[in-house]
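name: query_chain
kind: protein
chains: 1
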Amino acid sequence: MTFGRTTTARLHTQGYDFVDEETLRRVAPWLRWSPAICTAVIVMGVALSSPAVLWALVPFAAAGAAMRRHPFDYVYNFGVRRLTGTPPLPEHGAPRRFACGMAAGWLVVTGAAFATGADGAGYALGGALAAVGGLVSVTHFCIPSTIFRFVFRRPLA
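structure:
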């Protein structure tokens, strides 16, 4: 992965502006871990039009909003990183927690659309959520974190 100003700026926007550059460079690929897992589950839930699959992800997204680390980050920190020889993932800043909170609500509504037979709305909502998750998973560009920075006028550290 090329690590430059764009990647740094995108990660800072997500709330990692307090992490030193060397650590950020080493963990940047792994900061995609939780969004990628969530996106894969979202895609599966939408493909199956399954409220149960989507709603099963809600507690994980809500925990990511409430805690300083996403639950899936613990899997990385206590397991995967020992195989990769990389440092632990840093705590999340408020913008990334905000993104998890948005995802939790979005998952509830998307699941409700499928549960009530509004499959068209479920596919539209779920497809958009998968696109947002896919974008951050691939490029580190997080639309909800950008919204957070704009709405709350939170300058970078």
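note: Residues 5-151 form one domain.
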